[in-house]
């Protein structure tokens, strides 16, 4: 039986670049299983990698190319935005976290790999947040 799809949050992907070998290996393992990311995740990754980590754009593009090869990339849509706002109200999440959750729900993912949200949180009775480093 095929494993249910998993959505990967930006923070997990950023650990691919970590000096902490255990976390980098775990992030690579999560990515190695494939999954779904949104354009928002790609944008956040590029922003942090260039601004905070001071990576050259050529290196950022190489990592993003790998992510896009391994993961299904879903667009940001008006529907994602509207559902995200509903999630903000229901679950008191930040706007950006709610947009990640919205994209995961719209992609029919059963798992959301994230270090930022509460491990074990179940959203809409069909999406479970899992911290891969927990």
What does this structure look like?
- The protein is α/β, with parallel strands linked by helices.
- It has a single domain (6-130), classed as 5'-nuclease (Rossmann fold), CATH 3.40.50.1010.
- 52% of the residues lie in helices and 15% in strands.
- The chain has 6 helices and 6 strands.
- The strands form 2 sheets. Strands 1-4-6-5 form a 4-stranded mixed sheet. The chain has a two-stranded parallel sheet with strand order 2-3.
- Helix 3 (39-51) packs antiparallel against helix 4 (57-70) and helix 5 crosses helix 6 (95-106).
- The chain is globular and about 40 Å long.
- 32% of the residues are buried.
CATH class: Alpha Beta
DSSP helix count?
6
Largest sheet: 4 strands, mixed
Series of H and E elements: EHHEHHEHHEEE
Question: What integer is the average pLDDT?
Answer: 96
Cα-to-Cα separation, first versus last residue: 26 Å
The tally of beta strands, per DSSP, is: 6
CATH architecture: 3-Layer(aba) Sandwich
Secondary structure blueprint with pairings:
Blueprint lengths: L5 E3 L1 H5 L6 H12 L2 E4 H13 L5 H14 E4 L3 H14 L3 H12 L4 E3 L8 E2 L3 E4 L4
Helix pairs in contact: 3-4, 5-6
């Amino acid at each position: 039986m095929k494993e249910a799809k998993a959505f990967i949050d930006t923070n997990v992907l950023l650990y691919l670049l970590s000096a902490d070998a255990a976390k980098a290996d775990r992030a690579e393992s999560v990515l190695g299983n494939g999954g779904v990311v949104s354009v928002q995740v790609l944008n956040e990754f590029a922003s942090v990698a260039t601004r905070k980590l001071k990576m050259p754009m050529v290196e950022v593009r190489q990592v993003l190319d790998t992510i896009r090869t391994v993961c299904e990339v879903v667009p940001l849509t008006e529907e994602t935005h509207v559902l995200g706002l509903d999630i903000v109200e229901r679950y008191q999440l930040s706007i950006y976290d709610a947009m990640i959750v919205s994209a995961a729900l719209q992609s029919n993912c059963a798992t959301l790999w994230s270090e930022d949200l509460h491990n074990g949180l179940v959203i809409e009775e069909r999406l479970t947040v899992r911290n891969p480093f927990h």
